[in-house]
């Protein structure tokens, strides 16, 4: 049986994209529901580190115009590395980004959505 490492996230950019060497770093916030100890439902925000390699041209173009607060769909794969103190870090390597909704200041930026 074949396996697949593929992830799709929909969330808002928590920071403006940051170009670091040969990739662009995005931080995406998503929300998930969970049951609290008293049995009610609550919501938590997760933060995901996204890397866009500069070989993924469509994703690079979208990350170039995306800004903090924009609603994005990110598609890619999860990669793991070991950080300081042996902590395992998960990073999403994006190969496809769609801007679903730009934040309120999009018109002042003079940008259009790609999706």
Please outline what is shown here.
This protein is mostly beta strands and 115 residues long.
Which structural class do the helices and strands define? mainly beta
What's the overall average pLDDT, rounded?
A: 85
Query: Which homologous superfamily in CATH is the superfamily?
Result: Nucleic acid-binding proteins
Ranges with pLDDT <50 over ≥5 residues?
A: 109-115
How helix-rich are the residues, as a percent range?
10-25%
Overall tally of domains: 1
CATH uppermost class: Mainly Beta
Number of strands: 6
Radius of gyration: 16 Å
What would the CATH topology be?
Answer: OB fold (Dihydrolipoamide Acetyltransferase, E2P)
- Termini Cα gap: 34 Å
Shape, principal axes of CA atoms: globular
Helix/strand order: EEEEHEEH
| Structure annotation, total helices | 2
> What's the architecture, going by CATH?
Beta Barrel
Strand content: over 45%
Major sheet summary line: 5 strands, mixed, barrel
Notable characteristics:
54% strand, five-stranded mixed barrel, single chain, 115 residues, mainly beta, OB fold (Dihydrolipoamide Acetyltransferase, E2P), disordered C terminus
């Amino acid at each position: 049986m074949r396996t697949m490492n593929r992830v799709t996230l929909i969330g808002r950019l928590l920071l403006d994209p940051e170009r670091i060497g040969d990739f662009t770093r995005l931080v995406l916030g998503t929300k998930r529901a969970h049951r609290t100890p008293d049995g009610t439902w609550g919501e938590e925000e997760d933060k995901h580190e996204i890397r866009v390699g500069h070989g993924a041209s469509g994703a690079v173009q979208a990350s170039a115009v995306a800004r903090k607060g924009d609603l994005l769909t990110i598609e890619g794969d999860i990669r793991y590395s070991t950080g300081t103190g042996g902590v395992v870090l998960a990073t999403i390597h994006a190969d496809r980004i769609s801007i679903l909704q730009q934040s309120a200041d999009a018109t002042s930026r003079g940008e259009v959505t790609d999706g």
